[in-house]
Amino acid sequence: MEKPKLAYSRSEAAEATGYSEATIKRAIMAGDLRESHPQVGGHPSAKGVILSAELERWLEGMP
């Protein structure tokens, strides 16, 4: 049984939703989609991830 994905990179989020990576980036920059930066050694990681619940929330708000 495959475990559900907890988080996506920008490119994975684009692939999973069918939107372009540019659309995902624009949504993040506009504040419509939140990208998280997990703590690593007490500092936020440089690589952001989009939590699956956040991606679902964003999709539900799409027209």
Polypeptide structure, described:
The chain is α+β, with helices and mostly antiparallel strands. It has one domain (7-60). It is 43% helix and 13% strand. It is built from three helices and four strands. The chain has helices spanning 10-17, 21-30, 52-60; strands spanning 7-8, 39-40, 43-44, 50-51. It has a two-stranded antiparallel ribbon with strand order 1-4. A two-stranded antiparallel sheet has the order 2-3. A hairpin with a 2-residue loop joins strand 2 and strand 3. Helix 1 (10-17) crosses helix 2. The chain is globular, with a radius of gyration of 12 Å. The N and C termini lie far apart (33 Å). The model has no long low-confidence stretch (mean pLDDT 94).
Strand content: 5-15%
Structural class: alpha+beta
Runs in which pLDDT lies below 50 for 5 or more consecutive residues are none
- State the oligomer: single chain
Largest sheet: 2 strands, antiparallel
Strand order of the largest sheet: 1-4
Strand-and-helix sequence, N→C? EHHEEEH
Q: Overall 3D geometry? A: globular
Evaluate the radius of gyration: 12 Å
Helical residues, percent: 40-55%
Q: How many DSSP H or I helices?
A: 3
Count of strand segments: 4
Span between termini: 33 Å
Mean pLDDT: 94
The tally of domains stands at: 1
Describe the protein's topology.
Layout: E1 7-8, H1 10-17, H2 21-30, E2 39-40, E3 43-44, E4 50-51, H3 52-60
Antiparallel strand pairs: 1-4, 2-3
Helix pairs in contact: 1-2
